[in-house]
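Write out this protein's structure.
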Amino acid sequence: MVLAKEFGGEPLNILSISQREKIPKKFLEQILLEMRNAGFLYSKKGAGGGYSLLKNPAEINLVHVMRLTGGPIAMLSCVSLNFYQRCDECRDEETCGIRDAFQSVRDATLKILSETSIADLIIKEQVLGDKFKI
């Protein structure tokens, strides 16, 4: 979110991002590296270096970030599109009511994450922030 809010500006160093978002530095380093390797971030070494977004925040949907950093979106592996594994206790996937319900949850989640950009989150924060100002 910090990099999206600073889109078009100077790169931000890891320590600055870590402090602003209250994310442990080591954990953040892993996330930034994954995002850079996937082509979402630019990194610059040395004095004045840091990370910045390569893409406009409006072009980055939450599904991209979730898949990159969070693994499967589905709550059950038997309905996962990218991390499928058959459930050990399942007798018949075609007639499993639990699987059917969680497939619907997965589809709804994917729809929301695919239609929500990082820019949408920033706008929502601004609107909510303005709403609760005294």
